[in-house]
Structures are given as C-alpha cells and as structure tokens.
Design a protein that fits this description.
Elements (H helix, E strand, L loop, with lengths): L5 E4 L6 E4 L3 H37 L5 E7 L5 E7 L24 H9 L6 H7 L3 E3 L6 H10 L12 E3 L1 H5 L6 H17 L2 H15 L14
Parallel strand pairs: 5-6
Antiparallel strand pairs: 1-2, 3-4
Helix pairs in contact: 1-3
Length: 226
C-alpha cells in the first residue's frame, strides 16, 4: 500500500491544498531532500567532528578517522567515513567480525560516540557524494554481503535503494548476534523499501533524534510491529 497522501492545509475548507506524493515518485524527490539536509549537515557537523577527532587522537592510539568499504545501491562498493570508536587494528587477530553492543574492542570515548551515534557524523559527506541517503538500510561490508547472500534468501533485495545513516531496522532492532538477527533485519529493510515515503521517513528521523538525545530506549531483541 502506498503511503497516505501528504496533506498541507492552508486556511481550511476550500482553501485546503492537497499535495500527493505517491511512492513511485518519492525516490525522485529523495535525492533532492538528501542534498537539502546534507549541505547544512556537513556545515554543522564539521566543527563538531573536528573537535571529536582531536579527542579520539588524545585518548587512544591510532587514527581519528577510518575509511571502510561498504556495499551500496545495486552492489556498488564505496568507502564509508567514520570516527574511530575501537582500538587500533581491532581485527588484526580475528579478521572481520560483527560489531556488537558493549563490544570489548571499543575505546572509552568510542563507547560514548557509538551510543550517541556521533561517530556517524562524517557520513554526511557520503550523503552529499551520493554514496548514501539520510535514511535507508545500513550499508554492510563486502565480506558480510558475500556471506549473507548465500545464507539469507533474498538478501540482495536490500541493495535496491541507497543505504542510509539511519533506517527502519536500526530503530527497531539491536546489533546482530546471529544469522537469525540478519534475517529479521532484512525483513525490516524490505518492509522499509515497500513502504518508502514521507510517513515512514519522518517516523525514522524522529525516532533517531530521540535515541541520540536519550529520549528513546535502544531496541530490545523483540522487534516491534509497525
């Protein structure tokens, strides 16, 4: 079902102005909306990010930022930009592994950055470049995409849209612990793609802001119904 029409009422009665945005048209507007928000986002986030980068350097060994390959729309690989939240060379002994809640590899400052999602601020640049959207399925690493597409049916369906800084799965599901978690998050990602429109995007945006401000609890392992 498409999202309900967006209604703007000016003066009521005969003066009501109805603006209808159908789901099939929404994708055409979404890129413009991303740019509209990403430009001020970069301007506001840059000084904050630079201060945090200095703190990262002062409190732990290693670079302040890290670039990591992620899989985007239609399987295109790009490099995501993040503030470092884990110890340097965190995967040197283990190889690629899932990040988890209360990950022992986190630095003390990194734990705060991850809880508040401030480590994601540099990704406004990825949105501006067109690698990502503000809202969409979170981009995964190539090594995990390769694994999951063999273990989880229809996994590549989530690559039909640009990945996002935040998304429906992120506000409704905790960090992955098992392949079953991956399946549940895929269901949420696919639900988002089916329902993509103003209504669900605004809901995700407000829920994300509430989490950053500590007004919304982190999701439990029980996925709520939409």
């Amino acid at each position: 079902m498409p999202e309900p029409a967006t209604v703007l009422v000016l003066g009521g009665g005969a003066g009501a102005l109805y603006l209808r945005f159908f789901r099939k048209r929404y994708a055409e507007f979404k890129r413009a909306i991303d740019i509209l928000f990403a430009v001020p986002g970069v301007i506001i986030a840059t000084p904050i990010t630079l201060v945090l980068a200095v703190l990262v350097k002062l409190t732990s060994r290693g670079p302040a930022f890290y670039l990591q390959e992620r899989v985007g729309k239609d399987g295109r690989v790009f490099k995501i930009i993040k503030l470092r939240t884990m110890v340097a060379d965190a995967e040197a002994a283990t190889g690629p592994v899932w990040a988890t809640e209360d990950d022992p590899r986190e630095t003390r400052l990194g734990r705060v950055l991850r809880r508040t999602h401030l480590d994601e601020l540099p990704q406004f640049w990825n949105v501006l470049k067109g690698d990502m959207s503000l809202i969409g399925p979170r981009p995964e690493r190539p090594v995990f995409v390769e694994r999951f597409q063999h273990e989880v049916p229809n996994y590549r369906a989530r690559l039909a849209v640009r990945p996002g800084i935040t998304g429906w799965a992120q506000i409704n599901h905790p960090y992955d612990r098992s392949i079953d978690d991956v399946r549940r998050k895929l269901d949420l990602d696919c639900e988002y793609i089916r329902r993509m429109g103003w209504g669900i995007d605004i809901r995700i945006l407000f829920a994300t802001v509430a989490r950053v401000l500590g007004l919304r609890r982190r999701p439990s392992r029980t996925v709520p119904r939409a």
